[in-house]
Amino acid sequence: MPEANHSITTEFILMGFRDHPDMKAMQFVMFSAIYLVTMVGNLGLVALIYMELRLHTPMYIFLGNLAVMDSCCSCAVTPKMLENFFSEDRRISLSECMAQVYFLCFAETADCFLLAAMAYDRYVAICRPLQYHTLMSKKLCIQMTTGTFIASNLHSMIHVGLLLRLTFCRSHQIDHFFCDILPLYRLSCTDPFINELMIYIFSMPIQIFTISTVLISYFCIIIAIFKMNSKEGRGRAFSTCASHFLSVSIFYICLLMYIRPFEEGDKDIPVAIFYTIVIPLLNLFIYSLRNKEVKNVLKNVLQSYNILKPTSSPIAN
Q1: How far apart are CA 276 and CA 100, in angstroms?
Q2: Predicted confidence (pLDDT) per residue in 279-308, tens digit
């Protein structure tokens, strides 16, 4: 019997953002600005937390690690996307493709655990303030952070390893702006059933555990807020937790929409833009630039380097 003539794909072409060539320059400028602000803001936040001793608390340690993961997510996707706006062939090698999958999966998995850890930290701070330093000790904080990175690394390695068992011979065109697991399944000549099964076996427990932790923590926080006697304290706590919960909700809604039952076409792209490019920017503003303590520390640092003039209070004559 004659053998089927299949050529094995060792590189791919990213076909995302090809529909509106007249908007290419505007899209490049917009995504470049988002990438620049995201990287400078998040890495600046990490440096600020590292330098300032008063920010060496569990909340800010988790926040610093979240900023690192948001930077990792942006670095995994955005540079190649920006390059492809003005590239003729839009090629990406198989090794580069697997690297994108690994770092994106690593960052998104770590984000899930870190958001859950931050929600639990807020629960302890608001609902059990007298036991905060016992329940959220430095040792536990380090263990939670280390466990997050170990679990995220294992989760990413499993999915990349399973991708390498597939043979890509149907097409070398990925209908997306970066390499991701679901678009790669559509190009596989090997049945990806085992890969899809592993997504549900490994990813769904992570989603269920982290979402449950977030929901239970914020449910208890809301009850505690309504029991507060001080209207000012109640308003301040509700304002902070509402913005945090909004950010978490947007992240999980986009993520769950993206890993819904596998579909064809460009429907994934708008959601993918939001959770890989926009959310890292939103996290920067919601968790950091709206935080009074972070703003005060940043102001003091800028004043110490004479970048910002100190505000002088009016002196009575």
Answers
A1: 12
A2: 999 888 887 766 777 878 877 877 777 676
